[in-house]
Design goal:
Elements (H helix, E strand, L loop, with lengths): L3 E2 L1 H9 L12 E6 L4 E6 L4 E7 L7 E3 L5 E6 L24 E8 L4 E10 L1 E6 L5 E6 L4 E6 L4 E7 L4 E6 L5 E6 L4 E6 L4 E7 L4 E6 L6 E5 L4 E6 L4 E7 L4 E6 L5 E8 L4 E9 L4 E7 L4 E6 L5 E6 L4 E6 L4 E7 L4 E7 L1
Antiparallel strand pairs: 1-8, 2-3, 2-29, 3-4, 5-6, 6-7, 7-8, 9-10, 10-11, 11-12, 13-14, 14-15, 15-16, 17-18, 18-19, 19-20, 21-22, 22-23, 23-24, 25-26, 26-27, 27-28
């Protein structure tokens, strides 16, 4: 596949790649505004929107690189977004596309787009390996995962997975990628050394997103059509229990201490969910249900474990949740249809 490179990326490749392990980038929160064709930039210190980056049509997910210097965004190019969303998911979750999509790379120092890499049809989520060598992108339109060599900025492998792959996360040790197959009812397990699927875990109805505790002890998958979250034993590679949450749970994220799981409950456009389930991983009980905004969809926790950021897809806002007090302390207006969300250190 060919890669589109701007002058900025050439400069970075020639002069900056060796310095990626250097000074940390400024703290920012990036939000993919799927209906606005932008990525909103939030400054965590003041909880204010400080910028907006124009990206491709229907940016669904965004992920900051491990070193904090780049934000990767999935989009669907210029194809019209007129087809219905995935079966079982509310419209607005993300639209099916008939043409190949791309991932765009944003330099977090300048908030400018520095690269565009073609991937598969209807890309949904993107994650990067902890060593910063590869990006993995789920292609919901063709039941594959694209593997991008970050240094070369091109696809080096295409992996067949289950039906309608959606959410994806890398295990804390970097050895495996878990993929939620939305229409297949399974979680694909990919060996990141060989770039091959090694097994599929039966999960339940409508797997939307996966997650891990940072200690690697547990994995999770939200079951959007069951209103539950499945807990997976990563060693046995099987579901060991299911936890009731709110309606149409989408993204899940564990706190850095591996003690708490946050689940964003989106609901539907007609009956929006507006909450985050806070689950105690010692008891596997919901400790509190925190009210956010309409259509709570994406959730991410900062590296200090102090705040969680929740994108409210129907309210065009981001809720800031203080994890210790379990209260929303700020609401930030962003672009239309905020979906994926990620934090730069």
């Amino acid at each position: 596949m060919q890669v589109k490179r701007s002058g900025w990326w050439v400069v970075l490749m020639q002069a900056g790649l060796l310095a990626w392990a250097g000074s940390a980038a400024a703290a920012k929160v990036y939000v993919a505004d799927e209906d606005g064709n932008t990525v909103s930039v939030i400054e965590p210190g003041s909880f204010t929107k400080v910028g907006s980056v124009a990206v491709g049509r229907g940016p669904h997910n965004v992920q900051v690189s491990p070193d904090g210097k780049f934000a990767w965004v999935t989009n669907n190019g210029a194809a019209p977004a007129e087809q219905p969303a995935h079966p079982g998911m509310p419209k607005g979750e993300h639209e099916s596309m008939a043409s190949a999509g791309e991932v765009w790379v944003i330099d977090t120092a300048t908030d400018g787009v520095v690269a565009k890499v073609p991937v598969g049809m209807h890309p949904a989520h993107v994650v990067l390996t902890p060593d910063g060598r590869f990006a993995y992108i789920t292609n919901g339109g063709e039941n594959t995962v694209s593997v991008v060599d970050i240094a070369a900025q091109q696809v080096v492998a295409t992996i067949a997975v289950g039906a309608y792959p959606h959410g994806i996360r890398i295990s804390p040790d970097g050895a495996e990628a878990y993929v939620a197959n939305l229409k297949g009812g399974t979680v694909s397990v990919i060996d990141t050394r060989t770039h091959k699927e090694v097994t599929r875990i039966a999960a339940g109805k409508g797997p939307a997103q996966v997650g891990f505790t940072p200690d690697g002890r547990l994995a999770f998958v939200s079951l959007s059509q069951e209103n539950r979250v499945a807990v997976i034993d990563p060693v046995a590679r099987k579901v060991v229990r299911k936890l009731p949450v709110g309606t149409v749970p989408i993204q899940v994220y564990a706190t850095p201490d591996s003690r708490t799981l946050l689940v964003a409950n989106q609901g539907t456009r007609k009956k929006p969910g507006n909450s985050v389930s806070v689950i105690d991983l010692g008891t596997f009980k919901t400790a509190k249900t925190v009210e956010t905004g309409a259509g709570a969809h994406g959730v991410v926790v900062d590296r200090e474990g102090r705040y969680a950021y929740v994108s409210n897809i129907y309210a065009n806002s981001v809720s800031v949740l203080d994890i210790e007090s379990r209260k929303v302390v700020a609401t930030v207006a962003v672009g239309k249809g905020p979906n994926g969300i990620s934090v730069a250190p």
